[in-house]
Design brief:
This protein is mainly β. The protein is about 0% helix and about 40% strand.
Length: about 160
């Protein structure tokens, strides 16, 4: 993930700010616009926001609902943002969780959830595996909000082989 604060002034005619960013080799996607950057070391970012955030193509980014402070409320739903994948690409991520209140994690008291996404032609297959492990305060059930790239909304959604 690349987060680059835009420090240039906002243009009066467009109300957008623009600056040049250094981008490592590879394919990157700007989260706010879906704009792709490929094999460039520099590129111009334009944003109405005071920052620009880029993710590697195919990145799986777990997020939580807005909170005023950590632990204000349960992380439910767990938000899974998936950046556009290339044809045939598979991406995976393993989410780590612990109570956040004790040092039991040092003894392996934690939970892991494997997340994966595979682009198969026009189909995007997202898999959220069952949670492995336990810790004090682990949610007994949880909702998931899967955020897909905005440039290809799903025609249908199947969960556990059912529409």
């Amino acid at each position: 993930m690349i987060v680059a604060p835009i420090t240039a002034p906002v243009a009066a005619d467009t109300q957008l700010a623009s600056q040049t960013l250094w981008i490592p080799p590879g394919e990157w996607v700007e989260s706010a616009t879906g704009k792709r950057f490929t094999d460039r070391s520099r590129s111009s970012a334009t944003s109405p926001l005071p920052k620009s955030c880029l993710h590697r193509a195919g990145a799986i980014v777990p997020m939580q609902p807005e909170m005023e402070y950590t632990g204000e409320k349960p992380v439910d739903p767990l938000i899974i943002q998936i950046t556009a994948l290339a044809a045939g690409q598979t991406s995976s991520y393993t989410l780590y969780e612990d109570s956040g209140e004790a040092v039991a994690y040092q003894r392996g008291v934690c939970a892991w959830t494997k997340l994966s996404a595979t682009q198969k032609g026009d189909d995007l297959e997202v898999e959220i595996a069952p949670v492995s492990g336990r810790y004090s305060g682990i949610p007994l059930k949880r909702g998931y909000e899967v955020r897909l790239p905005g440039d290809w909304p799903p025609a249908s959604v199947t969960v556990n082989a059912r529409l």
